[in-house]
Design a protein that fits this description.
By secondary structure, this protein is of the alpha+beta class. The chain has helices spanning 11-22, 44-57, 59-62, 95-103; strands spanning 31-38, 63-68, 71-77, 82-89, 115-122, 126-134. The protein is globular and about 50 Å long. 22% of the residues are buried. The protein has a 4-stranded mixed β-sheet, with helices on both faces. Strands 2-3 form a two-stranded antiparallel ribbon.
Length: 138
């Protein structure tokens, strides 16, 4: 387990953290989004609970990040690892635009959620699960 304020992140984590911090704009270029079509009866709450448990067990997700002594280190526990939301897209909206907005979400790596779980319903016909995570935590 992570000892308080001592765990140093790998060079790969550090590189992606710095790339994320240096990019301009309100969209991230370094997330790792996954999109799955799911059945309408998908067990959302069970999936969400399981995902929260997995993220809480991963030190790089459960703990906040800080830049100390020219190193990226894990610090105190985050209040929340996962942002969960539900979106509805009707026939008048372009689904690609809605999905791209979710894919490019920026995360507050030092303190906020580092993973977003979005359940998207497209015109009550198709259902999607979008899992998006900051690349600096892989």
């Amino acid at each position: 387990m992570v000892s308080r304020y001592s765990e140093t992140m790998s060079m790969n984590h550090t590189r992606f953290y710095l790339l994320e911090k240096l990019q301009c704009g309100d969209r991230s270029q370094y997330n790792v989004p996954l999109c799955f079509e799911i059945p309408s009866q998908f067990l959302r709450s069970a999936f969400s609970v399981t995902l929260r448990r997995i993220l809480a067990a991963l030190p790089q997700c459960a703990n906040s990040l800080a830049w100390k002594a020219q190193k990226l280190v894990l610090t105190e526990k985050r209040q929340a690892c996962l942002l969960e939301e539900e979106r509805h897209i009707d026939k008048t909206q372009e689904p690609d635009n809605a999905f791209n907005a979710l894919f490019g979400r920026r995360f507050a790596l030092e303190r906020g959620e580092v993973c977003a779980l979005s359940y998207v319903t497209y015109y009550e016909e198709k259902y999607y699960l979008i899992l998006n995570m900051a690349a600096s935590l892989y």
